[in-house]
UniProtKB/TrEMBL annotation:
Predominant location: mitochondrion
Keyword Iron: no
Location(s), subcellular: Mitochondrion matrix
Keywords assigned: Methyltransferase, Mitochondrion, rRNA processing, S-adenosyl-L-methionine, Transferase, Transit peptide
Source organism per UniProt: Ursus maritimus (Polar bear)
Start and end residues of each stretch annotated as Disordered: 315-355
Pfam families: SpoU_methylase, SpoU_sub_bind
Family matches, as PANTHER family: RRNA METHYLTRANSFERASE 1, MITOCHONDRIAL (PTHR46103:SF1)
Task of the protein: S-adenosyl-L-methionine-dependent 2'-O-ribose methyltransferase that catalyzes the formation of 2'-O-methylguanosine at position 1145 (Gm1145) in the 16S mitochondrial large subunit ribosomal RNA (mtLSU rRNA), a universally conserved modification in the peptidyl transferase domain of the mtLSU rRNA.
One term of GO molecular function: RNA binding
Bias type Polar residues, positions: 318-327
A GO CC term attached to the entry: mitochondrial matrix
Protein name: rRNA methyltransferase 1, mitochondrial
Annotated family: Belongs to the class IV-like SAM-binding methyltransferase superfamily. RNA methyltransferase TrmH family.
Amino acid sequence: MALLSAVGGATWRCSGRLPALHFSGAARRGERPGGEELSRLLLDDLAPTPRSAGRLELLFGLSPCLLALRAARRRVARLLLQAGRSGLQGERAELLRAAEARDIPVLRPRRQKLDALCRSQVHQGVCMEVSPLKPRPWTEVGEAKPGDDPQQLWLVLERIQDPRNFGAVLRSAHFLGVDKVITSGRNSCPLTPVVSKASAGAMEVMDVFSTDDLAGFLQAKAREGWLVAGTVGCPGPEISPSSEIPITSCLEFLWDRPTLLVLGNEGSGLSLAVQASCQLLLTILPGRQLPPGLESLNVSVAAVRGRVSLWRGRESTFSKTPENPQPHQKGPEWRGTQDCPRGQNKRGRMGADLD
């Protein structure tokens, strides 16, 4: 006789064969389970969550959960640690101690329950019910001025929509020492648990700011003395709305003043309004002639490549030696009128198609 058991609004039918999973309405729609369904998912292992659980979200993964507890920026309703693990050591033990120190309920569901809760995302046996994080208004950035630190670098993201790309960009930005991250308020990926997991938890400790008027923000920073550097594909006549905006390779760019590095949407790149707000456009030249469809880098890779290039330019600018008493001279610029080599990208983007 078939054995039935309810798990997370889903029903497993076991009759000696591989189980078939029948998801609830929310699961079929790909939605995050709300408070009522979350309680059903946790059924016999966990006590029902309060009605306010609908305003919570499920953070998953060891690093995101641990860094969220350390940062203490979220309200934590409870910690879920997978049952059946023989002893908790290292970071899992630290998680447990931190939760107990803050009187956070700790529950031990089976792995199948966590799989159902996380929609089969890689949770590493650790989840937390937490309040959401939201970007802060850019007006809260503070009065950072160019003279305060000539090596400041802010990363500006316009309409980045894939959560894994967004998370990878945040992880790289944090590792490489980017000072601040600004996102466009419209048509951008929110700060979701998937973003946090893709960032290896960097999202939990970074301040991410947002503005609905990205072009106005860039123009305001330019008036304050910042260099606004956009990113585009291989130089060509379609790249820039204005031939007055110089285009140069990242390898030739010298970082000698505070800079805002602007990355555009994975598919369409920078909007014309944002491009027109840039004082300089940077490009990454490919190492070979590329076939159609492979003309550009993934936006997270482009962010790393651009940041490393700026770092090298800074070293050339600020480091003088007896053997090289003069800093490296700035390389040639393109003016957006030179044709790109055949087969290479001419659109205004340095990002890439979604992974």
